[in-house]
């Protein structure tokens, strides 16, 4: 199919057509369009060429529309209304009437902590909306955002792709989590106690070693890792009723202490803190809808 030639199409011609059709007068149409009468006459000639039709014929003192003009007038009215209302007028986002889907990417840790409270707060303000949570990680977040049209991502993600912006939510520390019915740690726990039992790891890549093992080696200690999982929920279930300990983020430990009668102590070895960030495409920075969601996340998480 031959490609349409847009070169001669001028939006002003449609505006002028509407003014002529509604006023039936070249002079009145010129006033409406803030141009001279001669300029409007020239515009009429351009319209006739574009539409290949006389469009308006002088009958007495009026410019009467041809049949073709009458046929296309409703189409032009609709086109100009769409351009004005859908393209040129920026619509304000109203959460109470929003019925679309919020797509939120979270690392496993962030999902355990924040998915329920985010759901509650979003539904409180946008009761007709739906929420879809996606599991993301440092390696796939940018692909997931593109593939699933994710609005925001929450988690510990550094080395940010240049297409994204980020806002710092908080800095996370660590605690050593265990079942006090099975594990009898003193407080503060000593290095000897710490390595006397097996450990579980939350390991995104399945590795059975972390920086903690390097820190222990500095003091001549070595621990035995009995299990590793990528999922915080799995590790929590492993700890219950078993002689296992696991170093986990502080907020997660505090939640598990409250919900499952687990206990947490400060580990006797240095564990690096990490940042939790809110990440989104730079293209969404000024979009009102995305900005609303980011503000919800900031309030809930902080």
Which labels suit this protein?
rod-shaped, Arc Repressor Mutant, subunit A, D-Maltodextrin-Binding Protein, domain 2, 302 residues, alpha/beta, 11 helices
- Strand order across the biggest sheet? 4-3-5-12-6
- Rounded to an integer in angstroms, the radius of gyration calculated over CA atoms is 32 Å
Q: What string, H for helix and E for strand, traces the elements in order? A: HHHEEHEHEHEEEHEHEHEHEEH
CATH-derived architecture of the largest domain? 3-Layer(aba) Sandwich
Beginning-to-end CA distance, first to last residue: 56 Å
- Poorly predicted spans: none
Number of domains: 3
Task: Note the main sheet.
Answer: 5 strands, mixed
CATH fold call of the largest domain? D-Maltodextrin-Binding Protein, domain 2
**Helical residue percent?**
40-55%
Helix count equals: 11
Secondary structure: number of strands: 12
Query: What's the level 1 CATH class of the largest domain?
Result: Alpha Beta
The gross shape turns out to be: rod-shaped
CATH superfamily of the largest domain: Periplasmic binding protein-like II
Mean pLDDT: 92
Structural class: alpha/beta
Strand content: 15-25%
